[in-house]
Amino acid sequence: MQLSYIYQGKGKQVILQEILEVDEENRKSILIQQGIDPDGVQSRCVFNMNETMLPLDIKEKIVRVRSHARAVKSGSQSIGSHVTLCATVSPGPRSPPPLFIFGKLVKVPEAMSDIQNCQQAYFDVSESGWINSDIFQRWTIQFSTWVHKQRDLGYFTNDEAILLIQDGHSSRNNRNIHDILQAENIRAVTLPGALTQFLQPLDVAIFHPFRAAYGKQISGRIVDIRNSQSNNQLPKLTEEQKRRIIVESAIDALQQATTARSRQNAFLSTG
User: Could you tell me which residue ranges the DDE-1 domain spans (predicted)?
Assistant: First the structure.
């Protein structure tokens, strides 16, 4: 299917259905070539990993009482660098922790260690804040380790294949990744770049409600901080405090956006 097909006045749902119908046999062919029975893969064994940028402005609303009048001052504080969230979801009940990538840092801040030690999230750094080949390789090791642990716990059987759906970002072009995944019987399927927004469950049905929930989480935390001050004003936050607000807000928002129903619908809607 050509992308020009999308710009001929058809509704998004119609376009998506046609894409799914056209690509169904191709997707099945890819799975068969990799030794996976497309009709025999259990839903709990299917995962989609994708990235999204996190908004960095910590917005504030300060209400000051002047005599009997209220004046509202609006402003923002920015963390000053890029943060990427890499989420991995499954229609099944278990998914690995998300990965956060901080930009403009040379190492993961020590203040994040308690979150990682509790296995709420993984952390990495890059100059740009975006994922790259080295980070994707480290994530692949983390994902493989998580899958291995789930096999030990009996969530996956020892011989069933795990299906990882991903886009064609250049970071995936790492010759070591195939061996890492193969060792844990994980088969990666890379979607055509032009169609990932229609075929990835995270893009189609998860990231939109996530962003809405993330904004509310940020606002709620800012209100709590402001209300804890005697002058009812938001103090100047340190970079460490801002990172903490962003990470904790994103973790909670992702949980809200990935209910059992939303995850199952996300995968069903993308075939």
Answer: 83-257
